[in-house]
Amino acid sequence: MPKSDSGEKPKSRSKPQAKPQSGDNRRGAIAGLIIVIVILGVGWWLTRDLTAASKMQDCLMSGRRNCNVIEPAR
């Protein structure tokens, strides 16, 4: 006659899964936010610089000689 189980479940031999710490998630999100801000800043600076260069080239191509930007005194 086979032995009957006494209601015990077989023990799992796998390791318990550890919960990811919330600090790791925040570090990744903050790093991503910083990278996005840097990319946007570089894009904004590059756009302004290329726009100014384009305006200067347009002025020079039209044959004008007074294309320098004159900023008002403060």
In short:
The chain has 74 residues and is an all-alpha fold. Helices cover 54% and strands 0% of the residues.
Q: Mean pLDDT, as a whole number?
A: 80
Number of strands: 0
Helix/strand order, N-terminal first: H
Low-confidence region ranges: none
Distance between the termini: 103 Å
Largest sheet: none
Structural class by secondary-structure content = mainly alpha
Keywords: Membrane, Transmembrane, Transmembrane helix
Notable features of this structure?
1 helix, membrane, transmembrane helix, mainly alpha, 54% helix, transmembrane
Would you mind describing this structure in some detail?
The chain is mainly alpha-helical and 74 residues long. Helix content is 54%, strand content 0%. It contains one helix and no strands. The chain is rod-shaped, with a radius of gyration of 33 Å. The chain starts with 21 loop residues before the first helix and ends in a 13-residue tail after the last helix. The chain crosses the membrane at residues 29-47. Residues 1-11 have a biased composition (Basic and acidic residues).
List the helices and strands and how they pair.
Layout lengths: L21 H40 L13
